[in-house]
Amino acid sequence: MGDFGSMMVTLSTWALPVVLAITLHEAAHGYVANMFGDDTAKRLGRVSFNPIRHIDPFGTIIMPLMLFFMKSPFMFGYAKPVPVDFSRLRNPRTDMIWVALAGPGINFVIALVAALLIHATLWVPGLAQKWFLINLLNTIQFNLLIAVFNMLPIPPLDGGRVLVGILPDRLARPIANLEPYGMFILLGLLLVLPVVGSLIGINVSLFSWVVLPPVEFLYNFILDHVVGFAR
């Protein structure tokens, strides 16, 4: 019972950070798309910072819970993608970049706000202080993870769309054409490649080599320079 209670307490320190990070990420895409002329998401009720409107039952709830109970070394999840009709943007090529950057951008903002709120834990009484602090640290870490992962230059991730927006047509077109296959490419890089690597004794984990190093750097930078933790 003690172990179960401990797991529930730990789960409670991850639930809000995960749900807010992945739902507000999508909300930001819709909000910026609407600013630049595409009201598709607004008409569908997706330009909203109400997390319930963006929850995907599997990606927002089931998958993070599976990773948690499997004691995965990292947490991950996703919300329902916000529909964006890039052809309706006033300047599709450049506006697409801002729409794509909005998701990771809001995650960085949330991480910074959480870091600033850590100073307020001094006024939180008793045992709640530790719980509140862990929530904020998890918020920083998870939002940085979502932001960095989504900036990988592979369509349909945000980084892939930014890359398409800034490259000349002759280079952007082949990358844009990858979008229908992007999720299969990601699954191969995230799941298949590490398994193949382990069979031949090589660590080729996309997360270990590409995603986690910048996340750890940014996390430590924020703790050192925004929070002022002595570690």
TrEMBL record:
Its cofactor is Zn(2+). The chain crosses the membrane at residues 58-76, 97-119, 131-152, 183-211. It is a multi-pass membrane protein. Signal peptide: none annotated. The keyword Heme does not apply. Residues 15-119, 139-191 form the Peptidase M50 domain. One of its GO terms (cellular component) is plasma membrane. One of its GO terms (biological process) is proteolysis. It is found in: Cell membrane. One of its GO terms (molecular function) is metal ion binding. The keyword Transmembrane helix applies. Keywords: Cell membrane, Hydrolase, Membrane, Metal-binding, Metalloprotease, Protease, Transmembrane, Transmembrane helix, Zinc. Its main location: membrane. Belongs to the peptidase M50B family. This is Site-2 protease family protein.
